């Protein structure tokens, strides 16, 4: 999975950079690629490029404050958590994201199968209609 992230804490110092390092270590140890931008007291560092965002499967916003540039992530699956989640349990966070993606992937494949078969699609429509 390709992950992009922005980390920003209230003071813009400790938790911002600790969350960044913990996310990177966890993601890489689990076989994922990750790029993390920080927005702290010295400004934005390691700014995400449009290409990195486009290629990403998911966006993790590990933030305790409002950040700039959130419009860049429109249309992307985005998870917003406090920085302390990334500091304390980065692997659990990524595991939860993996689980969500596997469920979404299964549903997408199922729905695509319905769309490819008009009879199955009609049956699904009829079932949903009868539930109303």
Primary descriptors:
132 residues; alpha/beta; 5 helices
Protein described:
- The protein is α/β, with parallel strands linked by helices and 132 residues long.
- The chain is 52% helix and 21% strand.
- It is built from 5 helices and 5 strands.
- It has helices at 14-29, 50-55, 83-88, 90-116, 118-131, and strands at 2-8, 33-40, 43-45, 58-63, 78-81.
- The chain has a 5-stranded mixed β-sheet.
- A hairpin with a 2-residue loop joins strand 2 (33-40) and strand 3 (43-45).
- The radius of gyration is 18 Å and the shape is elongated.
- The termini are far apart.
- The model has no long low-confidence stretch (mean pLDDT 86).
Helix content: 40-55%
Write the element-wise H/E pattern from the N-terminal end onward. EHEEHEEHHH
Number of helices: 5
Indicate the radius of gyration in whole angstroms. 18 Å
**Main sheet attributes: strand count, strand direction, barrel closure:** 5 strands, mixed
Measured by DSSP, the beta-strand proportion falls in: 15-25%
Form type = elongated
Strand order of the largest sheet: 3-2-1-4-5
Class by SSE composition:
alpha/beta
Mean of all residue-level pLDDT scores: 86
Count of β-strands: 5
Unreliably modeled segments: none
Intertermini distance: 38 Å
Summarize the structure.
The protein has 132 residues and is α/β, with parallel strands linked by helices. It is 52% helix and 21% strand. It contains five helices and five strands; from the N terminus they run βαββαββααα.
């Amino acid at each position: 999975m390709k992950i992009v992230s922005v980390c920003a804490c209230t003071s813009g110092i400790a938790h911002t950079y600790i969350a960044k390092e913990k996310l990177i270590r966890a993601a890489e140890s689990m076989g994922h690629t990750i790029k993390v931008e920080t927005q702290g007291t010295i400004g934005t560092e390691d700014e995400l490029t449009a290409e990195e965002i486009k290629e990403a499967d998911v966006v993790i916003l590990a933030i305790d404050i409002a950040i700039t540039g959130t419009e860049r992530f429109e249309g992307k699956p985005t998870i917003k958590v406090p920085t302390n989640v990334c500091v304390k349990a980065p692997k659990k966070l990524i595991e939860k994201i993996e689980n969500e993606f596997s469920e979404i992937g299964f549903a997408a494949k199922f729905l695509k199968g319905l769309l490819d078969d008009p009879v199955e699609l009609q049956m699904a429509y009829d079932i949903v209609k009868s539930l109303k």
